[in-house]
Amino acid sequence: MIIVSDEFRIERLRRAEKPVRIVLDTDAKNEIDDQFAIVYALFSPADITVEAINAAPFTKTGYPNPALGMEASYQEILKVLDKMNITGKVPVFRGAKSILTDPAAPVRSEATDNLTRLATESNDDPLYVIGIGAATNIASAILLKPQIMKRIVVIWLGSHPEYWDTPKEFNLQNDPMAAMILLDSGVPLVHIPCKNVAEHLRTVPAEIEQYVSGRGTVGDYLADIFGNWVTGKARSKPLWDMTTIAYLVNPEWVPSKLSQAPKINNDMTWGTIEKGRHLYRVATDVKRDPIFLDFFEKLEGNTLAR
C-alpha cells in the first residue's frame, strides 16, 4: 500500500505551519482525557483549526460492543461542545460501529466519508488527523482511499514505546488491525506512545480545582468529571490525549525523533523491523509543565471572555 516516498514523508513530518487544519478522532466517553483534548484544541485557534470531530468506537465494561462505545462517544462530544456554548459550530460525525477484521473490508461511516472528503479537498497543506482512540475510522479511510496518504498527517496516541515488552494498550487493543495498518501503510505518522511518554502529562485534583474549576461551564464540567474519576488520597491522573494537541501547539513540548516504523505481530508483540522499513516520527518525552500552563491560561482566557 505504501505510495508515499520517505522524502515526501520526512517533509510532511517537519514542523507545521500554523494554524493547522485538524480532524479529531476520539473515543470521548471511554475516559476523561478526551474531553480535555477537545477543549484544548478548540481553545487554540492561533495554532489549530478544528474542521471536524469524529466519534471512535471502543469496548469496555458498560459498553460491550463497538457500536455502543461509538454512540456514547458521539453524544459525549456533543455534550462538551454544549458546555463550551458552541453547539452546531463544529461538525461532529458518527464513526465505525465495528472494528476492522479484514484489510479488504474497511468499515465505512460518516466519519470516513467526511475524512476522505476533507483530505481530497485539501491543498498543499496537509490535513492533520488526530487519533486519540482506536484507529478504526482513520485506518478505514486510508483503506477506502489510499491516495489521501499524500494529503494527511496522522498523529496517533496509543500503544507503548518500541523498547517496552509489549505494545498492548487500550487504544491498540480496541482495534489491533487498525493500528497495524497505520504503522504498515507508510502514511506520514506521528506516534505518541503511552508508557513513559504520554503518561508524563499527569495532574492532581488540587491543580484541577485551582485552575479548571470555576472557569465557565466547561471548566466546571472538566473539573467534575476529573473529580469523579480521581478519588482517594495521593492520586494523580494522566491526561494522555492532550499530548496530541500540545504537539501541534509547540512540538518542543513533545520531543520526538524520526525512526523506522515498528511492526506489531498478531500476538501483540513487537515484530522484527525489516531492512528498508519506512520512517515515522515517534515522541520520546512530554514536558508537562508548559503544556498545562498553556491549557490553564487558554481555559481562563476563553471562559472569562464569554
In the CATH hierarchy, the third-tier topology is known as Inosine-uridine Nucleoside N-ribohydrolase, Chain A
Low-confidence stretches at least 5 residues in length (pLDDT < 50)?
none
Structural Rg: 18 Å
Tertiary shape: globular
Q: What's the helical proportion of residues?
A: 25-40%
Distance between the termini: 48 Å
Main sheet, how many strands, which sense, barrel? 8 strands, mixed
Number of helices: 11
Structure description:
- With 306 residues, the protein is α/β, with parallel strands linked by helices.
- It has one domain: Inosine-uridine Nucleoside N-ribohydrolase, Chain A (Alpha-Beta Complex), CATH 3.90.245.10.
- 38% of the residues lie in helices and 17% in strands.
- It has 11 helices and 12 strands.
- The chain has helices at 6-12, 33-42, 66-83, 110-121, 136-144, 170-174, 176-185, 205-211, 216-229, 242-249, 288-304, and strands at residues 20-26, 48-55, 92-93, 127-132, 152-157, 189-192, 202-203, 237-238, 256-260, 263-264, 270-271, 279-283.
- The strands form 3 sheets. An 8-stranded mixed β-sheet has the order 3-2-1-4-5-6-12-9, sandwiched between helices.
- Helix 5 links the parallel strand 4 and strand 5.
- The longest helix has 18 residues, at 66-83.
- The protein is globular and about 50 Å long.
- It starts with 5 loop residues before the first helix and ends with a helix.
